[in-house]
Amino acid sequence: MYGFIWRRLPGGTAARLVVFLLLIGIAAGLLWYVVFPWLAPRVPVDQPW
Fold it and tell me: Which residues cross the membrane (predicted)?
């Protein structure tokens, strides 16, 4: 999967690295600020059995 993404990115190695890190940062931010807050009330992690 990462190889597929790496081959599809434009530019040389340095430009690819910057774009790849930017994509990882966007994905992490989306998970941290959108997906996890939406999911937290729906997952009973802190409730005792």
Answer: 17-40
